[in-house]
Amino acid sequence: MGDVVRRALGKFTLYALDAGMQRLDGGAMFGVVPKPLWEKKIPADERNRIPLAMRTLLVETDGELILIDTGAGNKEDEKFRDIYGVENEGDPTALEDSIRAAGFAPDDVTLVVNTHLHFDHAGGDTVRRPDGEIVPAFPGVRHLVQKREWDFAHLRNERVKASYLPHNFDPVGEAGLFEFVAGEAEIVPGITLLPAPGHTPGHQSVRIESEGETALYVADLIPTVAHLPLPWIMGYDVEPLTTLETKRAVLGRVLEERTLLIFEHDPNTAWGYLSPQEKRPTLVAERPD
Ligand SMILES: [Zn+2]
Question: Distance, CA 251 to ligand 1 centroid (Å)?
Answer without folding.
Answer: 19
